[in-house]
Protein backbone atom coordinates (compact mmCIF):
# COMPACT_ATOMS: atom_id res chain seq x y z
CA UNK A 1 0.00 0.00 0.00
CA UNK A 2 2.05 2.93 -1.29
CA UNK A 3 1.89 6.03 0.90
CA UNK A 4 3.58 9.29 -0.12
CA UNK A 5 6.77 7.56 -1.38
CA UNK A 6 7.64 5.04 -4.06
CA UNK A 7 10.42 3.58 -1.92
CA UNK A 8 8.93 0.68 0.03
CA UNK A 9 10.70 1.47 3.28
CA UNK A 10 10.00 5.21 3.22
CA UNK A 11 6.36 4.49 2.36
CA UNK A 12 5.97 2.05 5.23
CA UNK A 13 7.65 4.25 7.83
CA UNK A 14 5.61 7.27 6.77
CA UNK A 15 2.46 5.16 7.10
CA UNK A 16 3.61 3.91 10.49
CA UNK A 17 4.17 7.42 11.82
CA UNK A 18 0.90 8.70 10.37
CA UNK A 19 -1.18 5.81 11.65
CA UNK A 20 -0.56 6.88 15.22
CA UNK A 21 -2.76 9.90 14.56
CA UNK A 22 -5.56 7.65 15.83
CA UNK A 23 -4.22 8.25 19.35
CA UNK A 24 -2.74 11.70 19.01
CA UNK A 25 0.68 10.66 17.72
CA UNK A 26 0.52 12.56 14.44
CA UNK A 27 -1.35 15.22 12.51
CA UNK A 28 -1.96 14.52 8.83
CA UNK A 29 -1.03 18.03 7.68
CA UNK A 30 2.25 17.89 9.59
CA UNK A 31 3.09 14.57 7.98
CA UNK A 32 2.30 15.82 4.48
CA UNK A 33 4.37 18.99 4.69
CA UNK A 34 7.27 17.04 6.20
CA UNK A 35 7.30 14.24 3.65
CA UNK A 36 7.00 16.49 0.61
CA UNK A 37 10.41 17.94 1.51
CA UNK A 38 12.13 14.53 1.55
CA UNK A 39 13.57 13.13 -1.72
CA UNK A 40 13.06 9.42 -2.39
CA UNK A 41 15.59 7.31 -0.50
CA UNK A 42 17.42 10.29 1.05
CA UNK A 43 17.97 9.13 4.62
CA UNK A 44 19.73 12.33 5.72
CA UNK A 45 16.86 14.47 4.46
CA UNK A 46 14.41 12.11 6.18
CA UNK A 47 16.13 12.62 9.52
CA UNK A 48 16.53 16.39 9.11
CA UNK A 49 12.95 17.11 8.03
CA UNK A 50 11.29 14.93 10.65
CA UNK A 51 13.58 16.41 13.31
CA UNK A 52 12.60 19.93 12.26
CA UNK A 53 8.91 19.10 12.45
CA UNK A 54 9.41 17.43 15.84
CA UNK A 55 11.20 20.50 17.22
CA UNK A 56 8.51 22.85 15.92
CA UNK A 57 5.71 20.76 17.45
CA UNK A 58 7.63 20.39 20.72
CA UNK A 59 7.78 24.19 20.97
CA UNK A 60 4.00 24.29 20.65
CA UNK A 61 3.77 21.84 23.54
CA UNK A 62 6.26 23.70 25.72
CA UNK A 63 4.52 27.04 25.16
CA UNK A 64 1.12 25.50 25.90
CA UNK A 65 2.42 23.93 29.09
CA UNK A 66 3.97 27.21 30.27
CA UNK A 67 0.62 28.90 29.70
CA UNK A 68 -1.23 26.24 31.69
CA UNK A 69 -2.92 24.53 28.73
CA UNK A 70 -2.38 20.93 29.79
CA UNK A 71 -4.41 19.20 27.07
CA UNK A 72 -2.79 21.20 24.29
CA UNK A 73 0.63 20.54 25.78
CA UNK A 74 -0.03 16.81 26.02
CA UNK A 75 -1.25 16.57 22.45
CA UNK A 76 1.73 18.43 20.98
CA UNK A 77 4.30 16.58 23.08
CA UNK A 78 2.87 13.20 22.07
CA UNK A 79 3.20 14.13 18.40
CA UNK A 80 6.70 15.45 18.91
CA UNK A 81 7.76 12.19 20.56
CA UNK A 82 6.57 10.16 17.58
CA UNK A 83 8.23 12.54 15.12
CA UNK A 84 11.56 12.41 16.96
CA UNK A 85 11.40 8.60 16.87
CA UNK A 86 10.73 8.73 13.15
CA UNK A 87 13.62 11.16 12.59
CA UNK A 88 16.02 8.74 14.27
CA UNK A 89 14.79 5.66 12.41
CA UNK A 90 17.39 5.43 9.63
CA UNK A 91 20.37 6.55 11.72
CA UNK A 92 21.73 3.03 12.13
CA UNK A 93 25.18 3.21 10.54
CA UNK A 94 26.79 3.70 13.97
CA UNK A 95 24.14 4.78 16.47
CA UNK A 96 26.37 4.22 19.49
CA UNK A 97 28.65 6.99 18.23
CA UNK A 98 26.09 9.18 16.46
CA UNK A 99 25.46 12.28 18.55
CA UNK A 100 22.41 13.25 16.49
CA UNK A 101 20.88 9.81 16.93
CA UNK A 102 21.40 10.05 20.68
CA UNK A 103 19.84 13.54 20.71
CA UNK A 104 16.78 12.46 18.76
CA UNK A 105 16.24 9.37 20.89
CA UNK A 106 16.56 11.41 24.09
CA UNK A 107 14.12 14.02 22.76
CA UNK A 108 11.59 11.32 21.91
CA UNK A 109 11.87 9.91 25.42
CA UNK A 110 11.66 13.28 27.18
CA UNK A 111 8.72 14.66 25.22
CA UNK A 112 6.83 11.44 25.84
CA UNK A 113 7.70 11.42 29.54
CA UNK A 114 6.39 14.96 29.88
CA UNK A 115 3.21 14.05 27.99
CA UNK A 116 2.74 10.87 30.05
CA UNK A 117 2.43 12.97 33.19
CA UNK A 118 -0.39 14.93 31.53
CA UNK A 119 -2.56 11.92 30.63
CA UNK A 120 -5.97 11.82 32.30
CA UNK A 121 -4.53 9.09 34.51
CA UNK A 122 -0.80 9.87 34.49
CA UNK A 123 1.43 7.00 33.41
CA UNK A 124 3.80 5.67 36.04
CA UNK A 125 7.46 5.23 35.09
CA UNK A 126 8.78 1.93 36.45
CA UNK A 127 11.98 -0.13 36.49
CA UNK A 128 11.61 -3.90 36.20
CA UNK A 129 14.35 -5.92 37.96
CA UNK A 130 16.33 -7.97 35.43
CA UNK A 131 19.52 -9.95 36.02
CA UNK A 132 21.35 -7.46 38.19
CA UNK A 133 19.98 -4.39 36.45
CA UNK A 134 16.55 -3.02 35.54
CA UNK A 135 14.48 -2.53 32.39
CA UNK A 136 12.59 0.77 31.90
CA UNK A 137 8.84 0.71 31.50
CA UNK A 138 5.56 2.51 31.96
CA UNK A 139 2.51 1.35 33.83
CA UNK A 140 -0.53 2.78 32.06
CA UNK A 141 -3.68 2.61 34.21
CA UNK A 142 -7.22 2.75 32.89
CA UNK A 143 -8.20 4.89 35.89
CA UNK A 144 -6.98 5.92 39.32
CA UNK A 145 -9.40 3.72 41.29
CA UNK A 146 -6.74 1.22 42.28
CA UNK A 147 -9.02 -1.63 41.21
CA UNK A 148 -7.43 -4.80 39.89
CA UNK A 149 -8.00 -4.92 36.13
CA UNK A 150 -7.05 -7.14 33.23
CA UNK A 151 -3.52 -6.15 32.32
CA UNK A 152 -1.43 -6.46 29.17
CA UNK A 153 2.31 -6.91 29.32
CA UNK A 154 3.47 -5.42 26.03
CA UNK A 155 6.80 -5.20 24.26
CA UNK A 156 7.88 -4.35 20.75
CA UNK A 157 10.25 -5.99 18.33
CA UNK A 158 13.23 -5.41 16.07
CA UNK A 159 13.14 -1.61 16.13
CA UNK A 160 10.57 -0.59 18.73
CA UNK A 161 10.86 1.95 21.53
CA UNK A 162 9.01 2.13 24.81
CA UNK A 163 7.45 5.44 23.83
CA UNK A 164 5.98 3.99 20.64
CA UNK A 165 4.25 1.31 22.73
CA UNK A 166 1.69 3.85 23.88
CA UNK A 167 0.46 4.57 20.37
CA UNK A 168 0.82 1.01 19.11
CA UNK A 169 -1.25 -0.59 21.87
CA UNK A 170 -1.60 1.09 25.26
CA UNK A 171 -3.92 3.92 24.19
CA UNK A 172 -6.41 1.49 22.68
CA UNK A 173 -6.19 -0.82 25.69
CA UNK A 174 -6.88 1.99 28.16
CA UNK A 175 -10.09 2.92 26.36
CA UNK A 176 -11.30 -0.63 26.90
CA UNK A 177 -10.51 -0.84 30.60
CA UNK A 178 -7.19 -2.69 30.35
CA UNK A 179 -4.05 -1.65 32.18
CA UNK A 180 -0.78 -1.95 30.27
CA UNK A 181 2.73 -2.64 31.50
CA UNK A 182 4.96 -1.71 28.56
CA UNK A 183 8.73 -1.99 28.71
CA UNK A 184 11.94 -1.80 26.70
CA UNK A 185 13.73 -5.12 26.48
CA UNK A 186 17.26 -6.19 25.57
CA UNK A 187 17.88 -5.08 21.98
CA UNK A 188 15.40 -2.21 22.22
CA UNK A 189 15.36 1.50 23.01
CA UNK A 190 17.48 2.69 25.90
CA UNK A 191 18.29 -0.87 26.94
CA UNK A 192 20.51 -1.40 23.91
CA UNK A 193 21.53 2.24 23.55
CA UNK A 194 22.52 2.97 27.16
CA UNK A 195 22.80 -0.43 28.85
CA UNK A 196 24.39 -2.36 26.00
CA UNK A 197 22.02 -5.32 26.29
CA UNK A 198 21.20 -7.14 23.06
CA UNK A 199 18.42 -9.42 21.87
CA UNK A 200 18.40 -12.99 23.19
CA UNK A 201 16.36 -15.93 21.85
CA UNK A 202 15.37 -17.36 25.28
CA UNK A 203 12.84 -14.58 25.79
CA UNK A 204 11.24 -16.20 28.82
CA UNK A 205 14.26 -14.85 30.71
CA UNK A 206 13.00 -11.35 29.84
CA UNK A 207 9.25 -11.80 30.26
CA UNK A 208 9.23 -13.79 33.50
CA UNK A 209 10.69 -10.87 35.52
CA UNK A 210 8.00 -8.64 33.98
CA UNK A 211 5.33 -11.13 35.03
CA UNK A 212 6.78 -11.21 38.55
CA UNK A 213 6.73 -7.42 38.64
CA UNK A 214 3.17 -7.17 37.32
CA UNK A 215 1.77 -9.71 39.75
CA UNK A 216 3.09 -7.67 42.67
CA UNK A 217 1.02 -4.65 41.60
CA UNK A 218 -2.39 -4.20 43.29
CA UNK A 219 -3.89 -2.84 40.05
CA UNK A 220 -3.22 -6.13 38.21
CA UNK A 221 -5.77 -8.94 38.11
CA UNK A 222 -3.54 -12.00 38.37
CA UNK A 223 -6.11 -14.16 36.60
CA UNK A 224 -6.30 -11.85 33.58
CA UNK A 225 -2.69 -11.23 32.64
CA UNK A 226 -1.99 -11.06 28.91
CA UNK A 227 1.25 -10.98 26.90
CA UNK A 228 1.39 -9.20 23.52
CA UNK A 229 4.49 -8.91 21.34
CA UNK A 230 4.75 -6.71 18.23
CA UNK A 231 6.61 -7.51 14.97
CA UNK A 232 9.66 -9.64 15.90
CA UNK A 233 7.94 -9.56 19.27
CA UNK A 234 5.53 -12.03 17.69
CA UNK A 235 8.29 -14.61 17.98
CA UNK A 236 9.58 -13.30 21.30
CA UNK A 237 6.17 -13.40 23.00
CA UNK A 238 5.48 -16.89 21.65
CA UNK A 239 8.81 -18.14 22.95
CA UNK A 240 8.14 -16.62 26.38
CA UNK A 241 4.61 -18.04 26.56
CA UNK A 242 5.99 -21.53 25.90
CA UNK A 243 7.78 -21.40 29.26
CA UNK A 244 5.84 -18.80 31.28
CA UNK A 245 2.49 -20.35 32.24
CA UNK A 246 0.98 -17.65 34.44
CA UNK A 247 -0.50 -15.94 31.39
CA UNK A 248 -4.24 -15.98 30.73
CA UNK A 249 -3.75 -15.26 27.01
CA UNK A 250 -1.13 -14.36 24.44
CA UNK A 251 -1.34 -12.30 21.24
CA UNK A 252 1.26 -12.61 18.48
CA UNK A 253 1.19 -9.30 16.63
CA UNK A 254 2.05 -10.76 14.13
CA UNK A 255 3.08 -14.41 14.29
CA UNK A 256 6.73 -15.31 13.59
CA UNK A 257 7.74 -18.96 13.46
CA UNK A 258 11.34 -18.87 12.27
CA UNK A 259 13.32 -15.64 11.97
CA UNK A 260 16.43 -17.38 10.69
CA UNK A 261 14.80 -19.04 7.69
CA UNK A 262 12.41 -16.36 6.50
CA UNK A 263 13.99 -13.18 7.78
CA UNK A 264 16.75 -10.94 6.56
CA UNK A 265 19.15 -13.76 5.72
CA UNK A 266 16.88 -15.07 2.99
CA UNK A 267 16.53 -11.63 1.42
CA UNK A 268 20.28 -11.18 1.47
CA UNK A 269 20.98 -14.63 0.04
CA UNK A 270 18.68 -13.96 -2.89
CA UNK A 271 20.04 -10.48 -3.59
CA UNK A 272 21.85 -10.09 -6.91
CA UNK A 273 25.37 -8.76 -6.94
CA UNK A 274 26.22 -9.62 -3.35
CA UNK A 275 25.13 -8.21 -0.02
CA UNK A 276 26.98 -4.89 -0.17
CA UNK A 277 25.61 -4.12 -3.63
CA UNK A 278 22.11 -5.05 -2.53
CA UNK A 279 22.40 -2.82 0.55
CA UNK A 280 23.52 0.08 -1.60
CA UNK A 281 20.41 -0.30 -3.74
CA UNK A 282 17.84 -1.02 -1.01
CA UNK A 283 16.98 1.34 1.83
CA UNK A 284 15.05 -1.46 3.52
CA UNK A 285 17.81 -4.07 3.39
CA UNK A 286 20.46 -1.52 4.39
CA UNK A 287 18.47 -0.50 7.44
CA UNK A 288 17.52 -4.06 8.39
CA UNK A 289 21.12 -5.24 8.49
CA UNK A 290 22.57 -2.16 10.15
CA UNK A 291 19.89 -2.17 12.83
CA UNK A 292 20.45 -5.89 13.37
CA UNK A 293 24.20 -5.50 13.81
CA UNK A 294 23.50 -2.96 16.56
CA UNK A 295 20.60 -4.61 18.36
CA UNK A 296 21.96 -8.17 18.19
CA UNK A 297 25.54 -7.14 18.92
CA UNK A 298 26.77 -9.05 15.88
CA UNK A 299 30.27 -8.42 14.48
CA UNK A 300 29.22 -8.63 10.83
CA UNK A 301 26.39 -9.75 8.55
CA UNK A 302 27.41 -13.41 8.66
CA UNK A 303 27.40 -13.29 12.44
CA UNK A 304 24.00 -11.64 12.35
CA UNK A 305 22.52 -14.31 10.09
CA UNK A 306 23.97 -16.99 12.35
CA UNK A 307 22.37 -15.35 15.39
CA UNK A 308 18.96 -15.35 13.68
CA UNK A 309 18.97 -19.15 13.50
CA UNK A 310 18.27 -19.46 17.23
CA UNK A 311 15.00 -17.53 16.87
CA UNK A 312 12.65 -20.37 15.99
CA UNK A 313 9.52 -21.93 17.48
CA UNK A 314 10.36 -25.35 16.06
CA UNK A 315 9.89 -27.93 18.80
CA UNK A 316 8.63 -25.25 21.20
CA UNK A 317 5.26 -23.98 19.95
CA UNK A 318 3.34 -26.93 21.38
CA UNK A 319 4.44 -25.93 24.89
CA UNK A 320 2.18 -22.86 24.86
CA UNK A 321 -0.92 -23.66 26.91
CA UNK A 322 -2.80 -20.36 27.19
CA UNK A 323 -5.33 -19.24 24.54
CA UNK A 324 -3.34 -17.59 21.77
CA UNK A 325 -4.36 -15.16 19.04
CA UNK A 326 -2.18 -15.08 15.94
CA UNK A 327 -2.46 -12.05 13.65
CA UNK A 328 -1.56 -12.07 9.96
CA UNK A 329 -1.20 -9.38 7.27
CA UNK A 330 -1.79 -9.97 3.55
CA UNK A 331 1.17 -7.90 2.38
CA UNK A 332 3.67 -8.45 5.18
CA UNK A 333 7.01 -7.73 3.53
CA UNK A 334 8.99 -9.17 6.44
CA UNK A 335 7.19 -12.28 7.69
CA UNK A 336 4.79 -13.40 4.99
CA UNK A 337 3.53 -16.92 5.69
CA UNK A 338 5.01 -17.00 9.18
CA UNK A 339 1.76 -16.51 11.14
CA UNK A 340 0.16 -19.54 9.53
CA UNK A 341 3.20 -21.66 10.43
CA UNK A 342 2.94 -20.60 14.07
CA UNK A 343 -0.80 -21.19 14.11
CA UNK A 344 -0.44 -24.68 12.66
CA UNK A 345 2.17 -25.61 15.27
CA UNK A 346 0.08 -24.47 18.25
CA UNK A 347 -1.84 -27.09 20.24
CA UNK A 348 -3.42 -24.66 22.73
CA UNK A 349 -6.80 -22.95 22.21
CA UNK A 350 -6.06 -20.66 19.26
CA UNK A 351 -7.42 -18.33 16.62
CA UNK A 352 -5.92 -16.78 13.48
CA UNK A 353 -7.16 -13.40 12.28
CA UNK A 354 -6.06 -12.24 8.82
CA UNK A 355 -6.02 -8.54 7.93
CA UNK A 356 -6.66 -7.98 4.25
CA UNK A 357 -5.27 -5.44 1.83
CA UNK A 358 -8.77 -4.48 0.62
CA UNK A 359 -9.75 -3.38 4.15
CA UNK A 360 -6.59 -1.35 4.71
CA UNK A 361 -4.94 -3.70 7.19
CA UNK A 362 -2.65 -5.67 4.93
CA UNK A 363 0.66 -4.01 5.86
CA UNK A 364 3.15 -5.38 8.38
CA UNK A 365 1.65 -5.06 11.87
CA UNK A 366 -1.42 -3.48 10.23
CA UNK A 367 0.13 -0.04 10.11
CA UNK A 368 -2.48 2.44 8.97
CA UNK A 369 -5.29 0.29 10.41
CA UNK A 370 -4.57 0.54 14.10
CA UNK A 371 -8.21 1.00 15.12
CA UNK A 372 -9.15 -2.18 13.26
CA UNK A 373 -6.26 -4.03 14.89
CA UNK A 374 -7.33 -2.90 18.35
CA UNK A 375 -10.98 -3.69 17.74
CA UNK A 376 -10.31 -7.26 16.68
CA UNK A 377 -7.62 -7.94 19.25
CA UNK A 378 -9.40 -6.59 22.30
CA UNK A 379 -12.75 -8.03 21.29
CA UNK A 380 -11.02 -11.42 21.15
CA UNK A 381 -9.37 -10.81 24.52
CA UNK A 382 -12.67 -9.76 26.11
CA UNK A 383 -14.26 -13.00 24.94
CA UNK A 384 -11.26 -15.18 25.77
CA UNK A 385 -10.75 -13.84 29.28
CA UNK A 386 -14.46 -14.08 30.05
CA UNK A 387 -14.53 -17.70 28.89
CA UNK A 388 -11.43 -18.54 30.91
CA UNK A 389 -12.95 -16.99 34.02
CA UNK A 390 -16.12 -19.00 33.55
CA UNK A 391 -14.17 -22.24 33.28
CA UNK A 392 -12.07 -21.41 36.32
CA UNK A 393 -15.03 -20.37 38.50
CA UNK A 394 -16.05 -23.01 41.07
CA UNK A 395 -19.47 -24.59 40.64
CA UNK A 396 -22.17 -23.16 42.91
CA UNK A 397 -23.23 -25.58 45.60
CA UNK A 398 -26.78 -25.34 46.85
CA UNK A 399 -27.68 -25.32 50.54
CA UNK A 400 -28.99 -28.59 51.94
CA UNK A 401 -32.75 -28.78 52.31
UniProtKB/TrEMBL annotation:
This is Alpha/beta fold hydrolase. Belongs to the AB hydrolase superfamily. FUS2 hydrolase family. It comes from Streptantibioticus silvisoli. One of its GO terms (molecular function) is hydrolase activity. Keywords: Hydrolase. It comes from the Bacteria. Residues 152-333 form the AB hydrolase-1 domain. PANTHER family: CONIDIAL PIGMENT BIOSYNTHESIS PROTEIN AYG1 (AFU_ORTHOLOGUE AFUA_2G17550), DIENELACTONE HYDROLASE DOMAIN-CONTAINING PROTEIN-RELATED.
